Amino acid sequence: xxxxxxxxxxxxxxxxxxxxxxxxxxxxxxxxxxxxxxxxxxxxxxxxxxxxxxxxxxxxxxxxxxxxxxxxxxxxxxxxxxxxxxxxxxxxxxxxxxxxxxxxxxxxxxxxxxxxxxxxxxxxxxxxxxxxxxxxxxxxxxxxxxxxxxxxxxxxxxxxxxxxxxxxxxxxxxxxxxxxxxxxxxxxxxxxxxxxxxxxxxxxxxxxxxxxxxxxxxxxxxxxxxxxxxxxxxxxxxxxxxxxxxxxxxxxxxxxxxxxxxxxxxxxxxxxxxxxxxxxxxxxxxxxxxxxxxxxxxxxxxxxxxxxxxxxxxxxxxxxxxxxxxxxxxxxxxxxxxxxxxxxxxxxxxxxxxxxxxxxxxxxxxxxxxxxxxxxxxxxxxxxxxxxxxxxxxxxxxxxxxxxxxxxxxxxxxxxxxxxxxxxxxxxxxxxxxxxxxxxxxxxxxxxxxxxxxxxxxxxxxxxxxxxxxxxxxxxxxxxxxxxxxxxxxxxxxxxxxxxxxxxxxxxx
Length: 509
Fold this sequence. Notes:
mainly alpha; Growth Hormone, Chain: A; two-stranded parallel ribbon; two-stranded antiparallel sheet; disordered N terminus
């Protein structure tokens, strides 16, 4: 009898322990950590990286399309400038709506809509009968694909554990750094083809084929993303905890989990977006935006937006002018001590005024392509190396900006052509900080406002880039030294602001 009583007592204890384990409420970080890191997270990293590649190709790679189309469309310098501005104007207009959509309807849904619409607009632009239609369609395609800049980071960050999150953010940025390799290689081989097909309303020439090739990553990312899930954290934050737990269990299974996923209940300890979704549109927009510019988020918002604007203004403007400056360096016939980069630019302008070449070129030069690919691969490898130090975001950002500011000083002071151009590559290093700064948006903002914070940052980024491209284009041939003085001062100001970011040991709002 005693034996039976002991058995019954032990059995009750076991049942109670099972019930307690079943009733345990997990934090979201505990739940996503238990979901693991395997085939699903690797696949999600691949598809969002493809989305980032598609965005970079559609936006920055459009400069190669402009080169290829200038003879067929008989572009004037003014028309070229308008076309080059479209990839930056589109995101300025649409990033705010995408941020609202991402925070209230879902990261995945936002990406699917953006990539599909962007792909269709990009494909349609290959059939543009004139430069005006091309400009409008590129405005539409880049307005859509710009969603990838923020929604991808949010979707991946919320679907992976804290242990790998920072590394994945930097790997995505490595893919962004790899973008010039893709569009320069595609541009070199496609634009050097010789064909012209008469379709009646247009002649289908190599640059139109290039547009279709460069649209492929966008279409592929849309199709592959159909096989992945919404962010469980977004669902939990929207008051749909049961669906969030269900998706976590599916992620756990696709990551190789065996048996039964232990999590049944989760808690976020954050304000939910569910009330905002039920408000009228304008009130909902205000509810998603206003908290970013009120304490306790105000200081962080101002910090991160200033640094973001600086990174994109410097990197994107110099990147758009990189082929021109590279060509100046490769074709300069001066000796190694003839004044540096700015003097080379002045000599190139004098030579062009003398020659007044009347031949229109719509192909990419071999050496320009080779140097561009080398530059892209080098920055990609640096970014991959940086991913090993994903937990030291502040240190990496400070180091990147220090190198860029020092490079600007050398460009101003040196008179050696080769050294001047090499340090011009150094002043472009702020591009390496893009992944770091968007990692901060994932780390420092609540789920409710994360998408909006990142999309408003995209507005700042593209707006500053658009402004810088036009300012640099108007002044680089007439006030070159002043341009590099301004860039160096701007980078240094961003460096100062970055010192006030949270320490790497503890990043909290």
